[in-house]
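Side project, low priority. Logging it here so it doesn't get lost.
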Amino acid sequence: MAPAENPSESPPDLARTVRELVRSLDRAALASALPVNDSSWPYASLVIVAVDHDLSPILLLSDLAEHTKAIKQDNRVSLLFDGTGGLAQPLTGPRATLVGLATATEDERLKKRFLARHPDAVMYAGFKDFRFYCVAIERAHLVGGFGRIAWIDGAALRSDPPPALVAAEEGIVSHMNEDHAEAVGLCAAKLLKLPGEGWRMTGIDSEGIDLRAGGTIARLALPNPVSGPDEARKALISLVGRARTAQ
């Protein structure tokens, strides 16, 4: 792993920056090795992405797509997550490239996590020519702006997902959306300063919650990392309390 060019930042800090960036986005540029005649060429395409508890990207790809044909020949891929949108000088903003191996998966939990993040994908997720893929991260390259560049090993990015929280996630999300929709919207409006209505929780992990309203997504960090449903409940109560008292 190449050292960070900013010595004031530790590897855990850099890894946290990558996790926050990746979890805050729902799309990425996918680069694969497209077979052309007797060689292969770099091929970049746009994909929508969800992220598992351990940061592994989850994709839903058509067998007919060029990137899927490439992955079937060579499953080495990279995903560029671009956090520079809206900046007058894009090169000053953060972006991270995850490098890893893409493998088709039948894991129902991963499918549900993806479809919660991208509800419109339900329309075609069941088609015979669509498959879910999970990317095992080998390493990441972070460019956080000028002079803030580092390679980060995949082991430093990944964390062992708390099994109790993983198991409880679907129930927590359903409970918040069905019984506390007003509180979810309040957190989006008061804590994230987001306009509009219809905000719903799409996921929760040890570091934050994912929100969506129509075609807009958002990420709200938890006050402290949580390891199970009881801690998650306390953290959500704390966030809602902050939102209710916010001016």
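Brief comment: The chain has eight helices and eleven strands.
Revisit when time allows.
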